From TrEMBL:
Assigned keywords, A-Z: DNA recombination
Organism lineage string: Bacteria, Bacillati, Bacillota, Clostridia, Lachnospirales
Pfam families the UniProt entry points to: Phage_integrase
InterPro entries, sorted: DNA_brk_join_enz, Integrase-like_cat_sf, Integrase_catalytic, Tyrosine_recombinase_XerCD
CDD domains: INT_ICEBs1_C_like
Name listed for the protein in its UniProt record: Transposase from transposon Tn916
SUPFAM superfamilies, alphabetized: DNA breaking-rejoining enzymes (SSF56349)
Gene Ontology biological process: DNA integration; DNA recombination
Record bears the keyword Membrane: no
Gene3D superfamilies named in the record: Intergrase catalytic core (1.10.443.10)
Gene Ontology molecular functions: DNA binding
Domain Tyr recombinase, first and last residues per copy: 61-288
Superkingdom field: Bacteria
Length: 307
């Protein structure tokens, strides 16, 4: 460790500069923690991390929530397909992927006067195998979420046909592995009209091919697959859509923070700010009310300026 220089660390961080900002920040912090700990333990005399910038990586593009029309198209696309139940839970309860895949029927209360889901477990994959634990992402992740009738009906039907204690399970009733979930989500991916690039070996050479599916057409080798999605969909976007819809409906940010399981209110408020202040008609009313002369208090700073 004594031989590591600041230039060595900067060089190690160069490849990460092309990755996401989150990944860059995580690795950067990990390296700094290692060397600061070594310095405190007097294993090194000079800390090479001093002066290393915390800034780097590509800022992730903020995705907009799905519109009502896109939600309708998505649900119509996956109806009767394996990811349907997962998508319904994501859209109408806002659970994280790891919370949905760990959800068991003992935490789904459909016969209460107000049906709800309790988040008490989380899923993770170790060497592709599912591991279910009661250790959640944060303390705030432990919550009870009331659910609408459309999700209640969907879950009731799924429960009647279920052979597992898990809401989302494989054919043997076990929680999904990482690769199993990836295959389930492929039902969504393959129906996207997004441009695709792949490589094929011809006479020992790797040839690059680009496919541009046409919306509404079927896949050449599988007529059952129709390209119906002209927008991106990810598991996290389902949750983002749920949170955004709550804010559009006028639910106060503190309640949304609880329902989303956000430990930090900043996460909720960032979404709230985008939802609230990206609508010109909303801004017009806010500004108009704020600057309406009739609403001025005689001692307010604005009224004093106007005088």
């Amino acid at each position: 460790m004594e031989e590591v220089t600041a230039d060595d660390i900067r060089l190690a961080l160069v490849p990460l500069s092309q990755k996401s900002k989150g990944l860059y920040d995580t690795v950067n912090m990990l390296i700094k923690c290692v060397f600061y700990s070594a310095e405190r333990s007097q294993l090194i005399t000079d800390n090479p991390c001093v002066g290393i910038s915390a800034k780097g990586g590509k800022a992730s593009k903020k995705k907009d929530a799905l519109t009502d029309q896109q939600v309708a198209i998505l649900l119509d696309t996956v109806k009767e397909l394996p990811p349907y139940l997962f998508i319904m839970i994501g859209l109408y309860s806002g659970l994280r992927r790891e919370e949905i895949l760990a959800l068991q029927w003992d935490c789904v209360f459909l016969d209460e006067s107000t049906p709800y889901i309790s988040v008490r477990r989380a899923w993770r994959a170790e060497h592709n195998r599912p591991v279910i634990s009661t250790v959640l992402k944060t303390k705030a992740a432990k919550r009870d979420i009331p659910i609408p009738k459309c999700l209640v009906d969907c879950l009731r039907e799924a429960k009647a046909n279920s052979i597992s204690e898990y809401v989302i399970a494989d054919s043997e009733g076990q929680p999904l592995s990482y690769s199993q979930f990836t295959r389930v989500w492929q039902y969504v991916v393959v129906r996207s009209a997004k441009e695709r690039t792949y490589y094929k070996y011809v006479n020992g050479q790797s040839i690059k091919y680009t496919v541009k599916p046409t919306l509404g057409t079927t896949q050449r080798n599988n007529p059952k697959i129709r390209y119906t999605l002209n927008f991106d969909v990810t598991p996290h976007l389902l949750r983002h859509t749920y949170i955004t819809n709550l804010l559009y409906a006028g639910v106060d940010p503190k309640t949304v923070q609880y329902l989303a399981g956000h430990e930090n209110s900043k996460t909720t408020m960032d979404i709230y700010a985008r939802v609230k202040y990206n609508k010109p008609e909303e801004l017009f009313e806010v500004v108009n009310d704020a600057l309406n002369q009739e609403n001025f208090d005689e001692k307010s700073p604005i009224s004093m300026v106007k005088e």
